[in-house]
Here is the input.
Amino acid sequence: MTRPLRKVLVANRGEIACRVIAACRELGLHSVAVHSEADRDALHVRLADEAVAIGPAPPAESYLDIERLLGAARASGADALHPGYGFRSESPALAEACAEAGLVFIGPGAEAIRRMGDKRAARALAREAGVAVVPGFEGEPHEALAAAAGVGFPLLVKAAMGGGGKGMQRVDRGEDLGAALEAAARVAGSAFGDRSVYLERLLEGARHVEVQVLGDGRGNALHVYERECSLQRRHQKVIEESPAPGLTPELRAALGEAAVALARRAQYLSAGTCEFLLAPDGRFFFLEMNTRIQVEHPVTEMVTGVDLVKAQLAIAAGGALPDPATIQPRGHAVEARVTAEDPLDGFLPQAGRLLRFELRSAPFVRVDTGFEAGQTVPSDYDSLLAKVIAWGRDRDEAFDRLAAALDAAVIHGVRTNLPLLRHLVRHEAVRAGRLSTTLLETEILPPFLVQATAPAPSLALAAAALAEILLPAGSDAGGAAAPGTTGAFADPFDRLGPLRLGGAA
Amino acid sequence: MRLTFRDRDRVRVVEVTPLADGRHRVSVDGEVLELAASRRGDRLELSAPSGTVPVRVSRDGAWRFVTVAGIADVRLERVEGRRAAGGDEASPEVVSPMPGRVVKVLVAAGDDVRKGQPLVVVEAMKTELALTAPRDGRVARVNAVLGASCEAGRPLVELAAIEDRRPESPAPG
Here is the structure.
């Protein structure tokens, strides 16, 4: 059953909106961007064939507002909606509203989103599919105390309807469990509107390895290999790569098979990701399933050649799944998330105008971004500025290329995590593949922060001083006095532009 | 020529003396570098005897963003020498370090506050930041408006000294 799509509303912003628009263009589909007032001049608005304003800057009144999203789809005559990631991408209500409005939702149906959104139900599904889950307990809170000993310590109390590590409580001793249950329930209630929690054994030294799957909603599914995402800070991924380093072929195959079994059992539709914890002893356990395109999907694309967003669109149109026999991973890919956060100031988010934004692609280096120089990074949304993805024939070549690309990157106007990323891709433990989900926070970050708070190198001060002298006062385009122009240290002759030829100026 | 920059919490003093052929003697906190500086398109190129390095400098008000490829990626603040020297006194103004939205206003004009006490909570990019009193004092003015957006650097609360303070009594409110 095929249902050709014609026009896709992209219900997102930033780099992922640009990514979806690019896939639409390649497939000959019209794209419709939506934007808040803060994003009027954003790149995704200019890249799309059409754009619809959907409200003021706060997400609740624009990108999260289902009525406004559907209104934009109606107004533009779109026949499909791509939710991207974040915002309403994992909201059953949006998928339901699309179905009611006769719009094709690019993703699984509301039922699958709801089921995977409840981590307890997702764990039950994994068990049904014969996939090991992290030892845990999903019963009533008053039984949790008795069950905890069976789960084992240390353990985590997690929000059943949650994500992103919010409300998660670590418990090392039985006597602390009561308080942790209460604290986790309180945060879960305010953040997710549901106080349900469950227990999960904390596997120390584990890695986060996830498997990309595609399903056709009729019980057919395949995997597109795995991604290693252990380098995280506060449960936010910083560096991701594919393949996961150091896996035996048997382990790799077993991970893929487990993910496919789960996707088949769920009769999963569209692209999804099964997250696993990989224990130091080589055992792996299902963690949860994400029912959307992932931020880190490009590393999979780079090693497999599968365009995952195009695959989503093709599946939504009723097309067939790719033939697994045609998917042969090749080489290694690694991604760094460049964010507007200052590692030296507690990762405080930064907003402001981008005076310079030089992130250039290079041979085997891909840059996914929703920003350009001169644009303002709004304070209303997440801090992702760009993803830099490098491919290499082997892991070292990929990391070396990423390191060179990060070295050449220049972002002025907001402080970024670039210094940390440059440090990470050269770090000895990272390069050796000695990864765990706590490596970044416990081993890498503390010495990095000490080293990075050293005085700026004298050469930087010398450069700042020479710039003051060599650029005549008042000719600088930067600062609030000249909105819309960049404050780059530009050669005045470059800025004169074509006026010089006319001679009239 | 003498220039002063703030490098996070440090004051850095740079003296530049032009030499012949576009070369400069640059002294940074007493460390002397001899550099040839030239402009190339929109970049500055610095040449030392050890080699040439491309540099990017951008200005935004007093801020100077400086990237020296492979060596430094910093934000400096150009300051007047006098202000830099006397800048240790805690400011009576509480400013938001980031643009965002005011999600809590915890004090009112006339309240006595202690150093470190949260005054206003600002949210940006899903992160909440509590702005605290830089010193003991009395709230002279609250400019923060609940739910309103705020710019970076805009004073949200202004403090005055407490004149007739009785040290033993707890702060009211």
About this structure: Residues 346 and 449 of chain A are 10 Å apart (CA to CA). Chain A touches chain B through 55 residues (CB under 8 Å). Confidence is low (pLDDT under 50) at residues 474-505 of chain A. The two ends of chain A are 64 Å apart (CA to CA).
